[in-house]
Amino acid sequence: VVEGVLYNKTEKKIICYPRSKEDNFYKVPEGTLSIGDAAFAYCNSLTSIELPDSVTIIENWAFYYCNSLVSIELPDSVTTIGYGAFYDCESLTSIELPNSVTSIDYRVFDGCNILTLTVEKDSYAETYVKEQNLNYIYANSESSQQELSTTNRIPFWN
After folding, report:
1. CB 108 within 8 A of CB 128
2. With b meaning 16 or more CB within 10 Å and e meaning fewer, what string describes 43-68?
């Protein structure tokens, strides 16, 4: 346990952030390699989470239903984002998907209805957002001419 958060020191992984914690900000410890399955699920008081440059994997449902989460910056070290990782994070407005990301599972951003993703041209992330019909803009772009309409989204319950 590190500062009240269950942490596997051998695997360098966040296992569980207590849902009862009332902090609105959490800084993941340096050296952490992964955010475990459902590690932050239902942590409704958190509005911002800071990930260190060491994180490479965000596992399944990692931030599921963190409905107050407004901001999270993914470091350039992240390569994998698991199934439903940000599912129902309804307050998220933007996430930049770094070029280092080479695997994004299904339903990662379902229920994030006001989210716009920032991607690099010709990246894996660009291919993913187009295939999933998600709102996106290109990094280093002044305008959002590449942003997709949400009117073509198919609700996840179909």
Report:
1. no
2. beebbebebeeebbbbbbbbbbbbeb
Distance spanning both ends of the chain, measured CA to CA: 41
CA distance 65 to 88: 5
Cα-based distances in Å from 19 to 9, 24, 27, 33: 21, 12, 16, 21
Residue among 31, 81, 76, 79 nearest 54 (CA): 31
- Find out whether 148 and 133 touch, Cβ atoms under 8 Å: yes
> Which pTM does this prediction carry?
0.88
- Element holding 50 (H helix, E strand): strand 48-50
**Partners of 35 in the beta sheet?**
14, 58
What is the per-residue pLDDT for 96? 96
pLDDT in tens, 7-42: 999 999 999 999 999 999 999 999 999 999 999 999
Backbone angles phi and psi of 8, in degrees to 5: -90, 105
